[in-house]
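Tokens help. One example:
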Amino acid sequence: MNASASARSNDSRAAFVTACTDVLGAAHVLTNAHDTAPFLTDWRRRYTGHACAVLLPADPQQVAAVVRLAREYRVAIVPQGGNTGLAGGATPDEGGGQAVVSLRRLNRIRDVDPHNNTITVEAGVVLADIQARADAEQRLFALSLAAEGSCMIGGNLSTNAGGTGVLRYGNTRELCLGLEVVTPQGEIWDGLRALRKDNTGYDLRDLYIGAEGTLGIITAAVMKLHPAPVAKVTALAGLASPHAALDFLAMAQRHAGALLTGFELMSDFSLRLVGRHFEQMRYPFAEAHAQTVLLELSDSESEEHARALFERLMEEALAQGVVEDAVVAENLAQSQAFWDLREHIPLAQAEEGLNIKQDISVPISSIGRFIEETDALIAQAVPGARMVTFGHLGDGNLHYNVQAPEGGEPKQFLAEHQKRINALVYEQVHAHRGSISAEHGLGQLKVDEAMRYKSPVEVRLMQTIKAALDPENLMNPGKVVRWNGAPRRAEEKPS
């Protein structure tokens, strides 16, 4: 870009910021470095970008006005919720020409309908607040994940977040009935339908869920609620291998059916790492087990019914040697302590030092083979590398992470081995017909790899959708899909 073009671009951005100030008010247009800093770095501190402004609209109408201004002044925008993402999807680039649109002021719970089992919420509502409101209505909002105290439902929808309840309730997509979206043209699509059956054409809702703000900005959603369970039984089971964990899963599904709401796999080293950095969280068994499963049953009948069912399951699992040992939570505090073990694994990894993280999925039946094969390949490539493997076994989603060898320098480990290990893991995932991103999204972290592993037909279809809905490529460019089509002004007609 020559000097005159650069000056015009700067003038255009300055005019855009001034126009946004007129719409939002000066207090909600942040340009000072101190004020914008929290919005410009992702949660893992892997990406830090620059922005011409951070904008905080208060309602969908203000979001739409900002988008229309962005289109007028040719400023790309990056939607952001709680900024807890792990793939850099809500972080602007380093050029300084993009604007972050934070949805945190859109934080109203608009409606709760207990008879329809739905809750209508704005994009900036924190996930834990939705759970609490549902609980107050004696209902369950089934999405649950480690960041629930700070992540926002708009971000959960934009990445199609998973969490610990997918086995029974599905991903965020399955929990959503309708959306309100600001399109790239600055229009508001009111698709807030609280219907479980609506067969009237293309499912626009599913286009926006998982699109990470590249096709439009989700401003509100109708989410499903479920009757609150009257009892839960939580336990830890020690097993010899991931193959045994798969046998145990099949057994648990046969005994419990829909009552099985959680089935989390954790490697021995994962739990040892938690104990190393959080002394109050002790290893739960007297003897070591290669794998531990955290399972939970949720019953709408009674605690006695749930415990009787669980006892029959464990008797069979122990008698057949599928499970080596088990510990059952006797009260709510113990149940929470078991879940705390699981949720502290990423925190313990952070305390241990920089590591290579993977959020992958493979068919459930392939998990045992995938872990064994890939562990062996990594051990050959990087002797001493420590595997921190955990995840949602019931839906095939593994957080397959690699820690530096004991005593090694984490930064040097990443510099020397990250690309090779990533490539190795992705090739294994591809060989098992899996996905390189299961629940964290692609963002900017995996967009190039996704373009490589998807078929040319699939890539072209994604690019066609992007080009049709966002022809000027102003909605979170560089995320999810690579598309370099020439932008054109709204008033220009295709030749």
Remarks:
- The chain has 16 helices and 19 strands.
- The chain has four domains: 3-102, 109-227, 231-338, 347-431.
- The longest strand covers residues 231-239.
